[in-house]
Amino acid sequence: EPNDIMIRKLGFSAVTGGNLVEAITRTCRSTVILGGLTTPYCVQATADDLNSAGFRVAVLSDACASQSIGRYSADVAHDFTLQRISYLIGQVVGSEEIISNL
Question: Which of 6, 26, 66, 98 is deepest in the core (most CB within 10 A)?
Answer without folding.
Answer: 66
